[in-house]
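Sequence and structure are no longer studied apart. To make this concrete, we show below a single chain and its fold as tokens.
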Amino acid sequence: MSTEIVTPTVRSVHYKWIALSNTTIGILMATINGSILLIALPDIFRGIKLNPLAPGNTTYFLWILMGFLLVTSVLVVSLGRVGDIFGRVKMYTLGFAIFTIFSILLSVTWMTGTTAALWIIIMRVGQGVGGAFLFANSNAIITDAFPANERGFALGINGVAAIGGSFLGLILGGVLAPLEWRLVFLVSVPFGLFGTVWARLKLRDNGRRLQASIDWLGNFSFAVGLIALLTGIVYGLEPYGGHTMGWSSPFVLACLFGGLAVLVGFVFVELHATDPMFHLDLFKSRSFAMGNLAGLMLAMARGGLQFILIIWLQGIWLPLHGYSFSRTPLWAGIYMVPLTVGFFLSGPLSGRLADRHGPRPFATIGLILTGLSLIGLTLLPMNFSYPIFAFLILLVGFSMGMFAAPNTSAVMNSLPEHQRGAGSGMLNTFQNSAAVLSIGFFFTIITIGLASRLPQALVKGLTAQGVSHAAAAAASHVPPIGSLFSAFLGINPLKEIVSASALSAHGVHTSVLLSRAFFPSLISGPFGHGLRLAFVLAAAVCFIGAVFSWLRGAGQSQVFHTMSDNIEEGLSAAGEIAMSEVGAGSTGVFLDDEDELTNASAPTDAAR
């Protein structure tokens, strides 16, 4: 049976900013690393001398791209629970160190070919373990350090780092990878070393801990079930037999249904465990349950969105505007900057407003605006006017930022102090798992659209430029997912799907076929059909999430804010400074959630 270890909660004026800045660096580093490969993959594969589009090599492409996200999805709940038991700061600092070590190992890769690809995949898994330690404990550390009426703002800044890092990684990957592909891994090392030392010296555990045993069966069943489920999604993107995708593969079906069965078993295990890995009764809290479901919906809309926007830019828009395929990865990252700017503008602001007025209206409006902006994207032509596109993705980023901080703050405020690590881990698991599911969802919708229209367009376009009907028909049977991956990697797909002999045959207009504009013009119609359908479905998911967000309840009680405001008005400036130095001996009461009263240091909180 678990028992609670009460650690004195000491919230000094300076410590909360130390905690926020350190966790922000950690999350920024981890999320930059998660997205930097989206742009750097072409240079990485050239560096290790491996063609990712060759038969049998697509698996390496998918696992290098998605392995980090899968590992963090699986481990964050378990490592959050470990932080609750052994100390969140200890686990967080360990995560910084692990992440840094594997970043160094990635940057010293000396092998080539499939051996190098396997090395990168394994080291990325190691990085994912370190990232899971960081993700699992950062929100809990911030929640421990800040009073309830400031957590929205603090978590908003941390959320900006999380989402902003995923987009900054696009630019860094485009800048560093052409210089030296190892730099995309080495760039994390100085921040990792600094963050590890700083966390070790300055951070301290000031929350409540549990003295409990580790639920090995719960951890094992959760990991096996989620790994199987997410692995099935990854392999479902690959062609199988005569099908364009692998959703009918026995292996994929076994992973999907087997994983779901094991996760059902995990629920049974947790309901009967003495010290469960995760207390499922937390979902009885409406704020916690609805906040997680709303976050899940947004993550499903957001996870694949970044991939599809990059493919749209790299595969169609940039080549049509004179950019060579080899330059499109960098410029795709640059043209995606408004998305990051929007999040930077709204994240801390919405967190601050949610602290004062409650999270529900801001989180709900954020989801509605996200859905509306996605519908706006469906109205654009494939060769759009960039200012309109920039405005719409700015609105996407702004609305996502409006949701993120209030939702995270509401979920964390609904948790008991001694379960914040596991609760934060569950929130991250919902979001990361949904991101993997979203990638599978977006790619499937786009591929279905391509499969129905691209073969005819290829045959018609190729034969019009002199390619024989037999060669054109052979090219049209190439799985359409290969065209998406080619565009994603900054490679002219026609060099991959049309044989060299067919391109060099007499009467073939090779210069036209290999021009920047030919394939983008050819694919824009079929791609646009699937793209618009994906955006509409993602918008629908956001609207469903808005319903969940509204059902969370009114959020933080206004009673607390009234108490806090009255206390602050009655304190002089000198009194505020004096009270901030008072230890944790004096106690008062503040309301963390509408259903929960938590003891805390009232003088220290009031001095804020």
About this structure: Residues 9-214+277-448+526-550 form a domain with the Growth Hormone; Chain: A; fold (CATH 1.20.1250.20). The two ends are 37 Å apart (CA to CA). Confidence is low (pLDDT under 50) at residues 4-10, 556-608. The chain has four domains: 9-214+277-448+526-550, 215-276, 449-525, 558-606.
